[in-house]
Write a structure and sequence with these properties.
With 497 residues, the chain is mainly α. 72% of the residues lie in helices and 1% in strands. The protein has one domain. It is built from 20 helices and two strands. It has a two-stranded antiparallel ribbon.
Protein backbone atom coordinates (compact mmCIF):
# COMPACT_ATOMS: atom_id res chain seq x y z
CA UNK A 1 0.00 0.00 0.00
CA UNK A 2 2.83 2.40 0.89
CA UNK A 3 4.51 1.62 -2.43
CA UNK A 4 1.26 2.43 -4.28
CA UNK A 5 0.94 5.76 -2.46
CA UNK A 6 4.58 6.57 -3.26
CA UNK A 7 3.97 5.83 -6.96
CA UNK A 8 0.80 7.95 -6.87
CA UNK A 9 2.72 10.90 -5.41
CA UNK A 10 5.27 10.49 -8.21
CA UNK A 11 2.33 10.51 -10.62
CA UNK A 12 1.12 13.80 -9.14
CA UNK A 13 4.62 15.24 -9.70
CA UNK A 14 4.22 14.29 -13.39
CA UNK A 15 0.62 15.48 -13.79
CA UNK A 16 1.26 18.80 -12.00
CA UNK A 17 3.86 19.73 -14.63
CA UNK A 18 2.46 22.93 -16.25
CA UNK A 19 2.24 21.39 -19.74
CA UNK A 20 0.54 18.23 -18.45
CA UNK A 21 -1.88 20.37 -16.45
CA UNK A 22 -2.66 22.24 -19.66
CA UNK A 23 -3.35 18.97 -21.52
CA UNK A 24 -5.57 17.77 -18.65
CA UNK A 25 -7.56 21.03 -18.87
CA UNK A 26 -7.79 20.69 -22.67
CA UNK A 27 -8.97 17.08 -22.33
CA UNK A 28 -11.75 17.75 -19.80
CA UNK A 29 -12.92 20.82 -21.74
CA UNK A 30 -13.08 18.93 -25.06
CA UNK A 31 -14.66 15.94 -23.30
CA UNK A 32 -17.38 18.06 -21.70
CA UNK A 33 -18.11 19.82 -25.00
CA UNK A 34 -18.30 16.50 -26.82
CA UNK A 35 -20.50 14.97 -24.13
CA UNK A 36 -22.93 17.87 -24.54
CA UNK A 37 -23.27 17.40 -28.31
CA UNK A 38 -25.84 14.67 -29.08
CA UNK A 39 -24.56 11.62 -30.94
CA UNK A 40 -20.86 12.39 -30.51
CA UNK A 41 -19.39 10.32 -27.69
CA UNK A 42 -15.90 9.92 -26.18
CA UNK A 43 -14.96 7.04 -28.51
CA UNK A 44 -15.52 9.20 -31.62
CA UNK A 45 -13.55 12.07 -30.06
CA UNK A 46 -10.53 9.99 -29.05
CA UNK A 47 -10.56 8.35 -32.51
CA UNK A 48 -10.71 11.76 -34.18
CA UNK A 49 -7.76 13.04 -32.13
CA UNK A 50 -5.53 9.98 -32.66
CA UNK A 51 -3.82 11.37 -35.81
CA UNK A 52 -3.45 14.84 -34.28
CA UNK A 53 -1.85 13.61 -31.05
CA UNK A 54 0.69 11.34 -32.75
CA UNK A 55 3.30 14.10 -32.35
CA UNK A 56 2.51 14.52 -28.62
CA UNK A 57 4.60 12.90 -25.90
CA UNK A 58 2.69 9.74 -24.76
CA UNK A 59 2.16 10.84 -21.14
CA UNK A 60 0.62 14.16 -22.24
CA UNK A 61 -1.56 12.38 -24.81
CA UNK A 62 -2.99 9.88 -22.32
CA UNK A 63 -3.56 12.57 -19.70
CA UNK A 64 -5.65 14.35 -22.35
CA UNK A 65 -7.48 11.15 -23.39
CA UNK A 66 -8.31 10.38 -19.75
CA UNK A 67 -9.69 13.91 -19.38
CA UNK A 68 -11.80 13.47 -22.54
CA UNK A 69 -13.24 10.20 -21.22
CA UNK A 70 -14.18 11.65 -17.82
CA UNK A 71 -15.37 14.94 -19.37
CA UNK A 72 -17.70 13.18 -21.82
CA UNK A 73 -19.29 11.33 -18.91
CA UNK A 74 -19.98 14.69 -17.24
CA UNK A 75 -21.16 16.48 -20.38
CA UNK A 76 -23.68 13.84 -21.45
CA UNK A 77 -25.97 14.81 -18.58
CA UNK A 78 -26.42 18.37 -19.91
CA UNK A 79 -28.05 17.26 -23.15
CA UNK A 80 -30.08 14.56 -21.39
CA UNK A 81 -31.52 17.01 -18.88
CA UNK A 82 -32.14 20.05 -21.09
CA UNK A 83 -32.87 18.42 -24.45
CA UNK A 84 -33.97 14.87 -23.54
CA UNK A 85 -31.27 13.62 -25.95
CA UNK A 86 -28.45 11.66 -24.28
CA UNK A 87 -25.01 12.77 -25.49
CA UNK A 88 -23.68 9.26 -24.86
CA UNK A 89 -25.16 5.90 -23.84
CA UNK A 90 -24.40 6.23 -20.12
CA UNK A 91 -26.67 9.30 -19.91
CA UNK A 92 -29.82 7.56 -21.21
CA UNK A 93 -31.20 6.91 -17.70
CA UNK A 94 -30.46 10.49 -16.60
CA UNK A 95 -32.79 11.76 -19.32
CA UNK A 96 -35.86 10.08 -17.75
CA UNK A 97 -36.13 12.22 -14.61
CA UNK A 98 -33.55 14.89 -15.47
CA UNK A 99 -35.65 16.18 -18.37
CA UNK A 100 -38.80 15.97 -16.24
CA UNK A 101 -37.05 18.23 -13.69
CA UNK A 102 -36.11 20.65 -16.51
CA UNK A 103 -39.74 20.83 -17.66
CA UNK A 104 -40.69 21.79 -14.09
CA UNK A 105 -38.11 24.60 -14.06
CA UNK A 106 -35.60 22.61 -11.96
CA UNK A 107 -33.06 21.94 -14.71
CA UNK A 108 -30.36 23.84 -12.80
CA UNK A 109 -30.77 21.62 -9.73
CA UNK A 110 -30.69 18.50 -11.94
CA UNK A 111 -27.43 19.68 -13.53
CA UNK A 112 -25.99 20.50 -10.09
CA UNK A 113 -26.71 17.07 -8.59
CA UNK A 114 -25.33 15.45 -11.75
CA UNK A 115 -22.09 17.50 -11.58
CA UNK A 116 -21.49 17.06 -7.83
CA UNK A 117 -22.43 13.37 -7.98
CA UNK A 118 -20.05 12.90 -10.90
CA UNK A 119 -17.26 14.56 -8.89
CA UNK A 120 -17.89 12.44 -5.78
CA UNK A 121 -18.19 9.19 -7.75
CA UNK A 122 -15.26 9.95 -10.05
CA UNK A 123 -12.95 10.74 -7.13
CA UNK A 124 -13.90 7.68 -5.04
CA UNK A 125 -13.74 5.37 -8.08
CA UNK A 126 -10.34 6.75 -9.12
CA UNK A 127 -9.14 6.11 -5.55
CA UNK A 128 -10.38 2.51 -5.90
CA UNK A 129 -8.59 2.17 -9.25
CA UNK A 130 -5.35 3.41 -7.61
CA UNK A 131 -5.27 0.35 -5.36
CA UNK A 132 -7.11 -2.26 -7.47
CA UNK A 133 -5.02 -1.84 -10.65
CA UNK A 134 -1.66 -2.75 -8.98
CA UNK A 135 -3.34 -5.83 -7.46
CA UNK A 136 -4.50 -6.85 -10.97
CA UNK A 137 -0.95 -6.29 -12.24
CA UNK A 138 0.47 -8.60 -9.55
CA UNK A 139 -2.00 -11.25 -10.71
CA UNK A 140 -1.13 -10.71 -14.39
CA UNK A 141 2.61 -11.21 -13.70
CA UNK A 142 1.78 -14.93 -13.32
CA UNK A 143 0.80 -15.06 -17.01
CA UNK A 144 2.73 -16.96 -19.66
CA UNK A 145 1.98 -17.24 -23.41
CA UNK A 146 -0.94 -19.67 -22.85
CA UNK A 147 -2.47 -17.40 -20.19
CA UNK A 148 -2.10 -14.33 -22.40
CA UNK A 149 -3.80 -16.19 -25.24
CA UNK A 150 -6.66 -17.05 -22.86
CA UNK A 151 -6.93 -13.39 -21.83
CA UNK A 152 -7.06 -12.30 -25.50
CA UNK A 153 -9.82 -14.84 -26.21
CA UNK A 154 -11.71 -13.51 -23.16
CA UNK A 155 -11.36 -9.97 -24.54
CA UNK A 156 -12.66 -11.09 -27.96
CA UNK A 157 -15.68 -12.85 -26.47
CA UNK A 158 -16.66 -10.20 -23.93
CA UNK A 159 -16.42 -7.27 -26.31
CA UNK A 160 -18.27 -9.24 -28.98
CA UNK A 161 -21.00 -10.59 -26.69
CA UNK A 162 -21.54 -7.44 -24.62
CA UNK A 163 -21.17 -4.50 -27.02
CA UNK A 164 -24.11 -5.30 -29.25
CA UNK A 165 -27.55 -6.86 -29.31
CA UNK A 166 -26.80 -9.69 -31.75
CA UNK A 167 -24.02 -12.20 -31.12
CA UNK A 168 -23.75 -13.20 -34.79
CA UNK A 169 -23.28 -9.58 -35.89
CA UNK A 170 -20.72 -9.06 -33.12
CA UNK A 171 -18.80 -12.13 -34.31
CA UNK A 172 -18.89 -10.83 -37.89
CA UNK A 173 -17.38 -7.54 -36.71
CA UNK A 174 -14.69 -9.41 -34.76
CA UNK A 175 -13.81 -11.58 -37.77
CA UNK A 176 -13.46 -8.46 -39.92
CA UNK A 177 -11.02 -7.03 -37.36
CA UNK A 178 -9.04 -10.28 -37.16
CA UNK A 179 -8.81 -10.36 -40.97
CA UNK A 180 -7.57 -6.75 -41.11
CA UNK A 181 -4.99 -7.69 -38.46
CA UNK A 182 -3.56 -10.36 -40.79
CA UNK A 183 -2.67 -7.80 -43.47
CA UNK A 184 1.09 -7.27 -43.79
CA UNK A 185 4.23 -9.36 -43.28
CA UNK A 186 4.04 -12.39 -40.98
CA UNK A 187 6.61 -11.76 -38.24
CA UNK A 188 7.62 -15.42 -37.99
CA UNK A 189 7.75 -16.53 -41.62
CA UNK A 190 8.32 -13.21 -43.40
CA UNK A 191 5.54 -14.01 -45.89
CA UNK A 192 3.24 -11.23 -47.14
CA UNK A 193 -0.41 -11.78 -46.24
CA UNK A 194 -3.46 -10.14 -47.88
CA UNK A 195 -1.41 -7.29 -49.36
CA UNK A 196 -2.68 -7.81 -52.97
CA UNK A 197 0.63 -6.54 -54.33
CA UNK A 198 0.24 -3.08 -52.74
CA UNK A 199 3.61 -2.10 -51.17
CA UNK A 200 1.98 0.29 -48.69
CA UNK A 201 0.14 -2.66 -47.08
CA UNK A 202 3.32 -4.60 -46.25
CA UNK A 203 3.51 -2.86 -42.87
CA UNK A 204 -0.14 -3.68 -42.19
CA UNK A 205 -3.16 -1.39 -41.93
CA UNK A 206 -2.57 1.39 -39.43
CA UNK A 207 -4.93 0.93 -36.48
CA UNK A 208 -5.48 4.71 -36.39
CA UNK A 209 -6.89 4.63 -39.94
CA UNK A 210 -9.35 1.88 -38.95
CA UNK A 211 -10.33 3.63 -35.71
CA UNK A 212 -10.92 6.99 -37.39
CA UNK A 213 -12.75 5.36 -40.31
CA UNK A 214 -15.13 3.29 -38.18
CA UNK A 215 -15.75 5.72 -35.34
CA UNK A 216 -15.34 9.20 -36.86
CA UNK A 217 -16.25 8.83 -40.56
CA UNK A 218 -18.82 6.06 -40.07
CA UNK A 219 -20.49 7.71 -37.05
CA UNK A 220 -20.58 11.19 -38.64
CA UNK A 221 -22.17 9.78 -41.83
CA UNK A 222 -24.69 7.86 -39.72
CA UNK A 223 -25.65 10.86 -37.58
CA UNK A 224 -25.89 13.08 -40.69
CA UNK A 225 -28.16 10.53 -42.40
CA UNK A 226 -30.52 10.63 -39.41
CA UNK A 227 -30.59 14.43 -39.24
CA UNK A 228 -34.05 15.91 -39.67
CA UNK A 229 -34.27 19.66 -40.09
CA UNK A 230 -36.45 20.05 -37.03
CA UNK A 231 -35.98 22.62 -34.31
CA UNK A 232 -35.21 21.00 -30.94
CA UNK A 233 -36.69 22.51 -27.80
CA UNK A 234 -34.03 23.40 -25.22
CA UNK A 235 -35.30 24.14 -21.72
CA UNK A 236 -33.70 27.28 -20.31
CA UNK A 237 -32.07 27.31 -16.87
CA UNK A 238 -34.20 29.21 -14.39
CA UNK A 239 -33.67 30.48 -10.85
CA UNK A 240 -30.80 29.53 -8.56
CA UNK A 241 -28.10 27.15 -9.81
CA UNK A 242 -27.61 25.82 -6.27
CA UNK A 243 -29.27 22.82 -4.66
CA UNK A 244 -31.49 23.35 -1.63
CA UNK A 245 -30.86 21.60 1.69
CA UNK A 246 -33.62 19.11 0.78
CA UNK A 247 -31.92 18.39 -2.56
CA UNK A 248 -28.63 17.67 -0.75
CA UNK A 249 -30.40 15.40 1.74
CA UNK A 250 -32.01 13.39 -1.06
CA UNK A 251 -28.85 13.22 -3.21
CA UNK A 252 -25.88 12.24 -1.05
CA UNK A 253 -26.88 8.61 -0.44
CA UNK A 254 -27.68 7.97 -4.15
CA UNK A 255 -24.23 9.42 -5.02
CA UNK A 256 -22.51 6.87 -2.75
CA UNK A 257 -24.72 3.97 -3.82
CA UNK A 258 -24.19 4.84 -7.49
CA UNK A 259 -20.42 4.78 -6.93
CA UNK A 260 -20.58 1.38 -5.23
CA UNK A 261 -22.64 0.00 -8.15
CA UNK A 262 -20.74 1.71 -10.99
CA UNK A 263 -17.09 0.98 -10.26
CA UNK A 264 -17.12 -2.83 -9.93
CA UNK A 265 -19.53 -3.34 -12.84
CA UNK A 266 -17.42 -1.03 -15.04
CA UNK A 267 -14.37 -3.17 -14.16
CA UNK A 268 -16.03 -6.40 -15.29
CA UNK A 269 -15.66 -7.71 -18.85
CA UNK A 270 -19.43 -7.30 -19.15
CA UNK A 271 -19.19 -3.76 -17.78
CA UNK A 272 -19.51 -0.35 -19.41
CA UNK A 273 -21.84 2.41 -18.25
CA UNK A 274 -25.27 1.24 -19.42
CA UNK A 275 -25.77 -1.65 -16.94
CA UNK A 276 -24.76 0.24 -13.74
CA UNK A 277 -26.85 3.31 -14.61
CA UNK A 278 -30.01 1.25 -15.13
CA UNK A 279 -29.24 -0.81 -12.02
CA UNK A 280 -28.74 2.38 -9.96
CA UNK A 281 -32.11 3.71 -11.16
CA UNK A 282 -33.84 0.48 -10.09
CA UNK A 283 -32.10 0.49 -6.67
CA UNK A 284 -33.03 4.13 -5.98
CA UNK A 285 -36.64 3.52 -6.94
CA UNK A 286 -36.83 0.50 -4.63
CA UNK A 287 -35.31 2.43 -1.70
CA UNK A 288 -37.19 5.70 -2.27
CA UNK A 289 -39.86 6.92 0.14
CA UNK A 290 -41.55 8.53 -2.85
CA UNK A 291 -41.33 5.99 -5.73
CA UNK A 292 -44.32 7.64 -7.44
CA UNK A 293 -42.06 10.63 -8.27
CA UNK A 294 -39.77 8.48 -10.40
CA UNK A 295 -40.36 9.27 -14.05
CA UNK A 296 -41.75 12.68 -13.10
CA UNK A 297 -38.65 14.46 -11.77
CA UNK A 298 -37.17 12.62 -8.75
CA UNK A 299 -33.73 14.06 -7.97
CA UNK A 300 -32.52 10.66 -6.69
CA UNK A 301 -33.08 9.28 -10.21
CA UNK A 302 -30.54 11.79 -11.54
CA UNK A 303 -28.03 11.63 -8.65
CA UNK A 304 -27.63 7.83 -8.52
CA UNK A 305 -27.31 7.00 -12.24
CA UNK A 306 -24.94 9.93 -12.88
CA UNK A 307 -22.70 8.75 -10.03
CA UNK A 308 -22.80 5.18 -11.41
CA UNK A 309 -22.01 6.51 -14.89
CA UNK A 310 -18.84 8.31 -13.78
CA UNK A 311 -17.70 5.58 -11.40
CA UNK A 312 -17.95 3.08 -14.26
CA UNK A 313 -15.47 5.19 -16.28
CA UNK A 314 -12.76 4.53 -13.67
CA UNK A 315 -13.91 0.90 -13.64
CA UNK A 316 -13.42 0.62 -17.41
CA UNK A 317 -9.89 2.06 -17.18
CA UNK A 318 -8.80 -0.42 -14.47
CA UNK A 319 -8.73 -3.65 -16.57
CA UNK A 320 -7.55 -1.65 -19.59
CA UNK A 321 -4.43 -0.36 -17.82
CA UNK A 322 -3.74 -3.45 -15.69
CA UNK A 323 -4.54 -6.24 -18.16
CA UNK A 324 -4.96 -4.61 -21.58
CA UNK A 325 -8.61 -5.76 -21.49
CA UNK A 326 -11.12 -3.32 -23.08
CA UNK A 327 -14.69 -3.46 -21.70
CA UNK A 328 -16.24 -0.58 -23.70
CA UNK A 329 -16.00 1.08 -27.12
CA UNK A 330 -13.97 3.98 -25.66
CA UNK A 331 -11.58 1.52 -24.00
CA UNK A 332 -11.12 -0.19 -27.38
CA UNK A 333 -10.17 3.16 -28.94
CA UNK A 334 -7.77 3.94 -26.07
CA UNK A 335 -6.21 0.53 -26.71
CA UNK A 336 -5.68 1.72 -30.29
CA UNK A 337 -4.05 4.88 -28.88
CA UNK A 338 -1.58 2.76 -26.89
CA UNK A 339 -0.88 0.81 -30.08
CA UNK A 340 -0.16 4.08 -31.89
CA UNK A 341 2.72 4.71 -29.46
CA UNK A 342 3.97 1.12 -29.60
CA UNK A 343 2.76 0.47 -26.02
CA UNK A 344 0.83 -2.51 -24.68
CA UNK A 345 -1.23 -1.84 -21.54
CA UNK A 346 -0.77 -4.47 -18.84
CA UNK A 347 1.80 -5.44 -16.21
CA UNK A 348 4.79 -4.57 -18.39
CA UNK A 349 3.45 -1.04 -18.87
CA UNK A 350 3.34 -0.54 -15.08
CA UNK A 351 6.88 -1.89 -14.86
CA UNK A 352 8.48 -0.20 -17.88
CA UNK A 353 6.59 3.10 -18.03
CA UNK A 354 5.32 3.94 -14.51
CA UNK A 355 5.59 7.67 -15.26
CA UNK A 356 2.88 7.38 -17.93
CA UNK A 357 0.55 5.11 -15.93
CA UNK A 358 0.73 6.93 -12.60
CA UNK A 359 0.82 10.34 -14.26
CA UNK A 360 -2.44 9.46 -16.03
CA UNK A 361 -4.07 8.10 -12.84
CA UNK A 362 -3.03 11.19 -10.84
CA UNK A 363 -4.31 13.47 -13.60
CA UNK A 364 -7.79 11.92 -13.22
CA UNK A 365 -8.01 13.32 -9.68
CA UNK A 366 -7.01 16.75 -10.99
CA UNK A 367 -9.36 16.42 -13.97
CA UNK A 368 -12.28 15.73 -11.62
CA UNK A 369 -11.65 19.05 -9.85
CA UNK A 370 -11.38 20.85 -13.22
CA UNK A 371 -14.68 19.27 -14.29
CA UNK A 372 -16.51 20.40 -11.18
CA UNK A 373 -15.25 23.96 -11.75
CA UNK A 374 -16.23 23.77 -15.44
CA UNK A 375 -19.68 22.27 -15.01
CA UNK A 376 -21.23 24.00 -11.99
CA UNK A 377 -20.79 27.69 -12.89
CA UNK A 378 -20.66 27.26 -16.69
CA UNK A 379 -23.74 25.13 -17.40
CA UNK A 380 -25.30 27.99 -19.40
CA UNK A 381 -22.21 28.21 -21.63
CA UNK A 382 -22.30 24.50 -22.50
CA UNK A 383 -25.96 24.77 -23.44
CA UNK A 384 -25.01 27.23 -26.21
CA UNK A 385 -23.06 24.41 -27.92
CA UNK A 386 -26.41 22.84 -28.72
CA UNK A 387 -27.07 25.77 -31.07
CA UNK A 388 -24.21 24.73 -33.44
CA UNK A 389 -25.87 23.74 -36.77
CA UNK A 390 -25.58 19.97 -37.15
CA UNK A 391 -24.52 20.05 -40.85
CA UNK A 392 -21.52 22.23 -39.90
CA UNK A 393 -20.65 19.84 -37.09
CA UNK A 394 -20.76 16.66 -39.19
CA UNK A 395 -18.99 18.31 -42.13
CA UNK A 396 -16.26 19.53 -39.80
CA UNK A 397 -15.75 16.04 -38.38
CA UNK A 398 -15.42 14.51 -41.86
CA UNK A 399 -12.92 17.17 -43.01
CA UNK A 400 -10.90 17.00 -39.77
CA UNK A 401 -10.78 13.17 -39.87
CA UNK A 402 -9.62 13.15 -43.51
CA UNK A 403 -6.86 15.71 -42.95
CA UNK A 404 -5.73 13.98 -39.76
CA UNK A 405 -5.51 10.55 -41.41
CA UNK A 406 -3.52 11.94 -44.36
CA UNK A 407 -1.08 13.69 -42.00
CA UNK A 408 -0.07 10.35 -40.45
CA UNK A 409 2.02 9.11 -43.40
CA UNK A 410 1.19 11.62 -46.21
CA UNK A 411 -0.06 8.60 -48.10
CA UNK A 412 -2.98 8.54 -50.56
CA UNK A 413 -3.50 4.79 -49.88
CA UNK A 414 -4.36 5.69 -46.28
CA UNK A 415 -7.06 8.08 -47.50
CA UNK A 416 -8.59 5.43 -49.78
CA UNK A 417 -8.57 2.91 -46.91
CA UNK A 418 -10.01 5.52 -44.53
CA UNK A 419 -13.05 6.16 -46.70
CA UNK A 420 -13.60 2.49 -47.62
CA UNK A 421 -13.53 1.61 -43.92
CA UNK A 422 -15.62 4.71 -43.07
CA UNK A 423 -18.36 3.78 -45.54
CA UNK A 424 -18.17 0.23 -44.17
CA UNK A 425 -18.56 1.67 -40.66
CA UNK A 426 -21.62 3.62 -41.82
CA UNK A 427 -23.10 0.38 -43.15
CA UNK A 428 -22.33 -1.37 -39.86
CA UNK A 429 -24.16 1.35 -37.92
CA UNK A 430 -27.19 1.05 -40.26
CA UNK A 431 -27.27 -2.72 -39.69
CA UNK A 432 -26.65 -2.32 -35.93
CA UNK A 433 -23.32 -4.17 -36.16
CA UNK A 434 -21.08 -3.16 -33.20
CA UNK A 435 -17.80 -1.60 -34.34
CA UNK A 436 -15.76 -2.08 -31.14
CA UNK A 437 -15.14 -5.83 -31.77
CA UNK A 438 -13.55 -4.93 -35.12
CA UNK A 439 -11.03 -2.62 -33.42
CA UNK A 440 -10.28 -5.16 -30.68
CA UNK A 441 -9.80 -7.91 -33.29
CA UNK A 442 -7.42 -5.72 -35.30
CA UNK A 443 -5.27 -4.83 -32.26
CA UNK A 444 -5.32 -8.03 -30.23
CA UNK A 445 -5.56 -10.50 -33.15
CA UNK A 446 -1.84 -10.42 -34.07
CA UNK A 447 -0.91 -10.59 -30.35
CA UNK A 448 -3.21 -13.58 -29.80
CA UNK A 449 -1.64 -15.32 -32.81
CA UNK A 450 1.86 -14.60 -31.48
CA UNK A 451 1.08 -15.94 -27.97
CA UNK A 452 -0.69 -19.00 -29.44
CA UNK A 453 2.36 -19.85 -31.56
CA UNK A 454 4.75 -19.19 -28.67
CA UNK A 455 2.75 -21.42 -26.30
CA UNK A 456 2.76 -24.25 -28.85
CA UNK A 457 6.50 -23.81 -29.46
CA UNK A 458 7.23 -24.04 -25.72
CA UNK A 459 4.99 -27.13 -25.33
CA UNK A 460 6.44 -28.66 -28.53
CA UNK A 461 3.05 -28.73 -30.24
CA UNK A 462 1.10 -30.13 -27.30
CA UNK A 463 -2.38 -28.51 -27.38
CA UNK A 464 -3.05 -29.56 -23.77
CA UNK A 465 -1.17 -26.40 -22.77
CA UNK A 466 -4.53 -24.63 -23.27
CA UNK A 467 -6.82 -27.07 -21.45
CA UNK A 468 -4.79 -28.95 -18.82
CA UNK A 469 -5.86 -27.57 -15.39
CA UNK A 470 -2.90 -29.24 -13.66
CA UNK A 471 -0.18 -27.43 -15.65
CA UNK A 472 -1.93 -24.20 -16.72
CA UNK A 473 -4.89 -23.51 -14.38
CA UNK A 474 -5.02 -19.78 -15.23
CA UNK A 475 -5.20 -20.39 -18.99
CA UNK A 476 -7.98 -22.98 -18.48
CA UNK A 477 -9.88 -20.61 -16.16
CA UNK A 478 -9.71 -17.71 -18.63
CA UNK A 479 -10.84 -19.88 -21.57
CA UNK A 480 -13.64 -21.37 -19.42
CA UNK A 481 -14.75 -17.85 -18.46
CA UNK A 482 -14.77 -16.87 -22.15
CA UNK A 483 -16.87 -19.96 -22.96
CA UNK A 484 -19.29 -19.04 -20.16
CA UNK A 485 -19.72 -15.49 -21.51
CA UNK A 486 -20.43 -16.97 -24.93
CA UNK A 487 -22.69 -19.89 -23.97
CA UNK A 488 -24.67 -18.73 -20.92
CA UNK A 489 -26.63 -16.00 -22.80
CA UNK A 490 -27.40 -18.56 -25.56
CA UNK A 491 -28.67 -21.10 -23.02
CA UNK A 492 -30.78 -18.46 -21.24
CA UNK A 493 -32.21 -17.33 -24.59
CA UNK A 494 -33.10 -20.93 -25.52
CA UNK A 495 -34.75 -21.49 -22.12
CA UNK A 496 -36.85 -18.34 -22.56
CA UNK A 497 -37.84 -19.47 -26.05
Amino acid sequence: MMETLQLLFQGFAVSLDPMNLLWAAVGVTIGTAIGVLPGIGPSLTVALLLPVTSALEPTAAFIMFGGIFYGAMYGGSTTSILLNTPGESGAIVTAIDGHAMARKGRGAQALATAAIGSFVAGTIATLAMTFVAPAMVSFALLFGPAEYFGLMVLAFVTVTAVLGTNLALGMASLMLGLTLGLVGIDNQTGAARLTFGIPELLDGIDVVIVAVGLFAIGEALYQASRYRYEKEEIYALKGSLWMSREDWRRSWKPWLRGTIIGYPIGSLPAGGSEIPTFLSYVVEKRLAKNPEEFGHGAIEAVAGPEAANNASAAGVLTPLLALGLPTSATAAIMLAAFQQYGLQPGPLLFENDPQLVWGMIASLYIGNVFLLLLNLPMAGVWVKLLLVPKPWLYGGILAFATLGAYSLNNNIVDLVLLWIIGIGGFGMRLLNVPVAPCIVGLILGPMAEQHFRRALAISQGDLSVFYNPMTHPLAVSLLALAAAFLLVPLVLRLRRA
